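[job 4471] stage=fold_predict status=RUNNING
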Amino acid sequence: MRYAVKLDGSYSDLFEAFLGLVTGDPTAPGKWNLAIADYKVPEHIADICLNGKLVPKMEHADDIAIATTEPQALQEKLDATEKYMGDIGCEMQVTKCVYSIHNRVLAKSTRVFYAGNKVIHETLDFKYVGVYFSTNAQEMFRAHYSEIATKASRMANMCLGVERMVRNLSVWDSRCLYMARVDSYLTNGSDISLDVMEAQIERLEKIQKDYLRRMLGLNTRCPIVVLYSETGIQPIRYRRILAALKYLEYMVSLPPERLVYNAIMDSYALACEGKISWINDMRIALAKLPIAVRWDINEDTELNNKTVKRLQKKVHESLNQWITESINQSSRVRDILRNRKERENGKLVYKALAFRHYLRVEIPKHRLAITRAVLSSHALAMERMRWKERHRTDAIPQEWRLCRFCKVYQEDVIHALLVCAHEAVTQIRGEFLNEIYIHIPEMRTKHSDPGEMFRDMLSIRSITAQLAKYVYEVLEIFYAEPMLNINPQMLKEVEDSDIEYEPEE
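[job 4471] inference complete, writing structure tokens
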């Protein structure tokens, strides 16, 4: 084969390649496919059998995997491979050739394998087609989870660090960075390695939760569910299982002569017999979802697209149910977030997950204020006094989390924004409401409950910026004064006595 190099319109002298293909040759993939087309290894009764079809080898470009269950059969295949490669002018790189044993009984043997006259070394961990495998642990994909978690964590920190260079990074832009650069690592291999080991998936979940908290500007004590309900991002456990189901849908739709079709049908047959298989791992992963999805394979006469579509629907229903129930059961956010609707095609529809419009407020400090107020990550007494702090080891009962100004009502977001009679707050509130009533006159008499009024205002996109500014100004007034701290010892004495507490006037 003769070649010439072109650089800036000039050509080099011709030169010849006597072995293999030149790196960068655009015709190399096609030539390699032609060269490897007749590559075969001797079949053996001990070879892997998928759905009645022997699979002695697999090829991905020039990466070849040979699999069998007998040492002698493996050596015969290595000899055939070394001979064929020599016949087409290629050379086996023995330094890159390794073998691994996935059977601990065979692992105790002292058999040595050769490629030509060179010894092939055993490896306990290896990578093939982007997936890491471990042979010395119960969890075959342990090394893969560790690798993608490390890369995802590193990339998440890089994406979050962008704000230091651009100063103010919007929530939407940060979300786009997450989906483009972090999500791809967290979902890597989800169609191969199903999440049956809690320790591994929990590590990925932590990376996702840490990123979303930083993206929204929330503290580590915020309710977990709001990280997903407000951003429209699926929990990684659900996202990975849905990706696996999408791949399953693809596999069952292939023609019977395709290898992957035979592999999934063989796995399904093993599952029906109650044996370890990819399908059984899928059933375990589905059952481990927060709202478990049960897949009784005995109810299905065969594995087809209809079955997979039904499972996908159940998983989506499980996700929506978990989001809805988690919000409704949380005393911290249910009053504001329950049953919210989003406009879709001109209609208001309930959406458990969506990117909420208040996250698009342009002024960062206003956006942070309304986000923390809505998602119970503020520093008012109702939230702060549930924390364990240096001077307080136990949470204060809700009835004692009183407003720092009026000292009568519980200090929560609704009270601070629409009830508290503190002079500075009422002045700002009056100016804000007058502005709102000009644009929305019916708001003046529409609500008698302040909580419902705030929910209604939060749903109106045209006043979101003004509402965020108002929330920021009110919270700044509250944060400027020390919180009304209830001494735990005095509280215990009051509770033990028959004296009724009377708030100061």
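[job 4471] summary: DSSP finds 21 helices and 15 strands in the chain.
[job 4471] exit 0
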